[in-house]
Design goal:
This protein is mostly beta strands. The chain has five helices and 31 strands. The strands form eight sheets. The chain has a five-stranded mixed beta sheet. A four-stranded antiparallel beta sheet has the order 4-31-30-29, with no helix packed on it. A hairpin with a 2-residue loop joins strand 27 and strand 28. Helix 1 packs across helix 3. The N terminus is likely disordered.
Length: 498
């Protein structure tokens, strides 16, 4: 997300310059104090001048942009915009002029790798009930019950479908679900972002357990564990402190403010909260042993590993990689994809709805292979505009991990079916791109879940279809929008390998 917070940053920098060629130096100094320096070539000139730099100017404390008033701004909490300019107006103009001169007129998008239609997945969806809308925010394949759970943000319920996609029932989770995980007890752990998918600073986020009878789909909230969270989008659970009780890590993505928090069980049954990272943007979480991996996807985008994260005295944060704020980091999985015994990072970049909604040549699927010295080397980039989430499984049962990914901001001009979902079949480290014919006609996909829903031994994929949301750079015809609205909130890609 391209939102650049300057307040409180770089106050030590000297203002005032008499040389016009110092625009780049000023930009590097000011921007790098808060996040990775954004090169002018990351965005086109119009986007810099029309939206990004005006936003930066407001955060720097300027009340006008080149003599013109700013457009009416959203409700921004105190502390986001500086009350007074943080640098001389002449230096700010030098920064603007530098980006204006150095940015390209248009961004040159990469040639798409050839995608071929696949017969590996059969496209299925439930019978659409009149009045329902495809506004799913989360999805989970439960291999144990051979069911799909889909979070419906319109009805604010959690719908349950069997392996044939017949509707079993629904429960009321008390808000919009952003993540579903199955607990060893058979219950489901869910994060609730509140009652709106829109950006908000309200502390309406929850973590709770849901109990569902798989036979009739009846159930409801079993226990509310944590309240007053900043728009939580992910969680991890386990016995992190070794006391035999369950602890939690919460990714409070927030909007302008957020927190990555640890909640350790206490002897009296309560949970003690501590803040691991104070700031918005914590997203995907992975716990491996005593280490916690987190993707920070707001403003200062980066991947962080926190060693011994449950030990306040020994815990140590390490930034594994950083990205410029236009990168649009959206999801992270930590796993050994290449089978060498060292964990790798599978990442998507494609968040494209804020102040720079243009298609970007660096959006897509990334694989960073872990090295013996603890570093990571980029070994794959597959262009996928608006890429939102990727999973890695042995879908074709040949012994290696393939990749499947969805894009919520697809470039449909490059092919309706080809742009919203891609399957990368792994052949000894070489990936062949495939698409599912007919999938793009059914909607836009915000999340996916992989699992064997029918018990036949191969891995299927369930997609969460969220047709109502920010369009970003999408130009959607009325005909296509009507078609999407008539679809289902969950779409199943049934694996036909077996």
């Amino acid at each position: 997300m391209l939102a650049i917070a300057f307040v409180g940053c770089a106050a030590f920098l000297a203002a005032g310059s008499t040389r016009a060629d110092e625009g780049e130096a000023l930009a590097r100094a000011w921007c790098s104090s808060c996040h990775l320096y954004p090169e002018p070539g990351l965005l086109d000139r119009k986007t810099w001048i029309d939206t990004v730099l005006p936003e930066m100017g407001q955060r720097l404390g300027f009340d006008a942009f080149r003599g013109g008033e700013y457009p009416a701004n959203r409700d921004v909490p105190e502390g986001v915009f500086a009350e007074e300019p943080l640098l001389d107006e002449a230096d700010w103009e030098r920064i603007i002029s530098f980006y204006e001169a150095a940015a390209p007129e248009v961004l040159e998008l990469p040639d798409w790798p050839v995608r071929r239609p696949t017969e590996r997945f059969r496209l299925e969806q439930p019978e659409v009930v009149e009045g329902d809308l495809p506004v799913a925010t989360a999805v989970l394949i439960d291999e144990r019950t051979r069911q799909v759970l889909m979070a419906d943000s319109y009805g604010m319920d959690l719908e349950i479908f069997d392996s044939d996609l017949d509707r079993v029932g629904a429960v009321r989770p008390g808000g919009i679900v952003s993540k579903i995980r199955r607990l060893p007890s058979g219950r489901y752990l869910t994060t609730i972002i509140g009652e709106t998918i829109s950006r908000t600073e309200a502390l309406h986020g929850l973590l709770q357990e849901i109990e569902i009878d798989p036979e009739n789909g009846e159930g409801g909230i079993a226990e509310r564990l944590i309240r007053r969270l900043h728009r939580p989008v992910d969680m991890a659970f386990g016995d992190f402190n070794g006391d035999g009780a369950t602890d939690y890590v919460m990714a409070g993505f927030g909007t302008h403010f957020g927190e990555l928090t640890l909640h350790l069980s206490q002897a009296d049954g309560t949970l003690a909260q501590s803040i691991l990272i104070d700031g918005a943007g914590s997203g995907s979480l992975t716990v491996l042993g005593d280490d916690l991996y987190v993707l920070m996807a707001q403003e200062n985008e980066r991947v962080i590993r926190i060693a011994d994260f449950a030990d306040a005295e020994r815990g140590e944060q390490q930034v594994l990689m950083r990205f410029p704020p236009s990168h649009g980091a959206s999801n992270l999985k930590v796993l050994d994809l290449d089978g060498d015994g060292i964990d790798d990072l599978l990442m998507t970049a494609g968040d494209n709805a804020d102040i720079s909604p243009v298609y970007k040549p660096y959006h897509g699927i990334y694989l960073y292979s872990g090295q013996e010295d603890g570093t990571f080397e980029q070994t794959l980039f597959f262009p996928l505009d608006g890429a939102t989430e990727a999973v890695a499984e042995d879908f074709d049962l040949d012994g290696d991990l393939d990749i499947a990914a969805v894009a919520y901001y697809p470039n449909i001009e490059q092919g309706l079916d080809e742009s919203g979902f891609v399957f990368l079949e792994n052949d000894e480290g070489a990936f062949t791109a495939e698409f599912v014919p007919g999938l793009g006609e059914l909607g836009r996909y915000i999340a996916l879940s992989a699992g064997d829903i029918d018990g036949d031994g191969d891995t299927d994929i369930a997609l969460a279809n969220l047709t109502f949301g920010p369009d970003g750079p999408l130009v959607i015809s009325q005909e296509l929008r009507r078609q999407w609205v008539s679809g289902s909130g969950v779409v199943l890609l049934r694996n036909t390998t077996r």
